Amino acid sequence: MKSPKRPLTIGSIAIVLVSFVDQSTKAWVVANADVLSSGLPVFPGFNLVFGRNDGVSFGLLGGVPWWSLSALAIAICAWLTILLIRTHSRIEALALGAIIGGAMGNVIDRLRFRAVTDFLDFYIGSMHWPAFNMADVFVVCGVALLLAAPLLGRKVYA
Q: Is 118 a catalytic residue?
């Protein structure tokens, strides 16, 4: 019999680790903002930049009050936390922890700076994908893992 606390532990550890990685990378970016403001080429197709986004993904909802976006994110995190507490799947717990940790990382930025620090700039030629951060990476990976969880949890018999 599986311990019901084990998935919650996995999800909780994911929340802490994701938040730590996100805030650590953003702290490095803010500390090096003067160098990154004009962009620092890493390799063709990828730069590190310093930017602030007061909206959500791709700059959508830019200009909306920061506190309303924070309140929405906190409400979503509360709902996801309930799902985390209820799940018996370690994969789902990991996915939910990644999503919650990433969302909370961006909430922390909104509380501190009234905007989110973005720094990962991918491009092809002169076409740039909107800059994003590690919180965004973890949220997207968490959602992908959550969608794949039913397939990953199946036992395959030969």
A: yes
